[in-house]
Amino acid sequence: MPRGFEELVDEAAAVPVDGWDFSWLDGRASEQRPSWGYARLLGERMARADAALDVQTGGGEVLAGVAHLARRTVAVESWPPNIARATALLRPRGVPVVAADSDHTLPFADATFDLVVSRHPLATCWPEIARVLRPGGGYLSQQVGPASVGELTEYFLGPQPAAVRGRRHPDGARDAARAAGLEVVDLRMETLHTEFRDVGAVVYFLRKVIWIVPGFTVERYRGRLAELHERIRTTGPFTARTTRFLIEARRPQ
User: Fold this and answer.
1) GO MF terms on file (predicted)?
2) Is the per-residue pLDDT at 199 higher than 80?
3) 96 vs 74, 77, 118, 119, CA distance in Å?
4) Cα of 249 vs its chain's centroid, Å
5) N or C: which end of the chain has fewer CB within 10 A?
6) 151 contact partners, CB below 8 Å, separation of at least 6
């Protein structure tokens, strides 16, 4: 028997959303992955690095999945629930998790790392990345691109201005990296496919990825959620496009 609206929403509203593990969505939502394989690239770069930094590590899930870490690997995170989660996950791997006051200042000396990585950062402070990299060191990052899951944003908020839809474009990342003195050695973007198979998956996703619908709460959007539940029940999964880009940059020798 299909589960009702209230049951689905109440369940999703009660699930913890700390960390960056989306396994709760297994079977309820799916997201196509970029062809370049960030985890594979991360593992290759880590295996060659001496000192590495993972910026905005979240709950440490991505870093914990790397088979061979750099000889000295450090993670940094600013959100307290994630700091505790990442510490528990990464401490057995010998990786300290450093609490940062913000995502715009890295609490490390100049030229400390030969590799800096970040998966889906909220923002990239390119001058800080350039500062902590050693000459010849590299930065590898997979980032959320422009208008990602925009169909979901517009379902709740209505049509968005072109300036909003154009944010997080890879061209802007390239220009900012160059302005910080880095050489961009790889930049590519893909448009992918995401689907949500029940309204609970949407609630969980919007609670966790808070910039898709800023200020989202179940009570604030209960009416639209109820309409979405009926839409999914009668016509099938809610589909959206996601955008991802890969950027790799190097500090000149």
Assistant:
1) S-adenosylmethionine-dependent methyltransferase activity
2) yes
3) 5, 11, 16, 18
4) 19
5) N
6) 238, 239, 240, 241
Q: What is the structure's pLDDT at 101?
A: 79
Number of domains in the chain: 1
User: Shortest CA distance to 9 belongs to which of 227, 224, 204, 154?
Assistant: 204
Range of the domain at 96: 5-250
Query: Which among 151, 182, 185, 180 has a CA at the least distance from the CA of 165?
Result: 151
Helix (H, G, I), strand (E, B) or coil at 61: helix
Orientation angle between helical segments 199-208 and 222-235, nearest 10 degrees:
130
Give the mean pLDDT of 56-61.
Answer: 94
For residue 202, give the nearest of 232, 167, 166 by alpha carbon: 232
Rounded CA-CA distance 249/24 in Å is 34
pLDDT for residue 4: 95
User: Using an 8 Å Cβ cutoff, are 100 and 122 in contact?
Assistant: no
